[in-house]
Request: fold
Amino acid sequence: MDEQRRFDESVDDAEAASVGRARAAAGGGIELTVEELAETLGRPQPPVSSTPGASGP
Reply:
């Protein structure tokens, strides 16, 4: 299971980098919020934290 999770995370990293490069090439900024990245990649939105300023695991 750990191996699959690491693979999935590496795919996510590669897709995020691709989105950033495409935005930069189009003259846009490469900074994306987590929500913008999830929407761009067609992924579900991350859960909203109930604690302000808390980050996920």
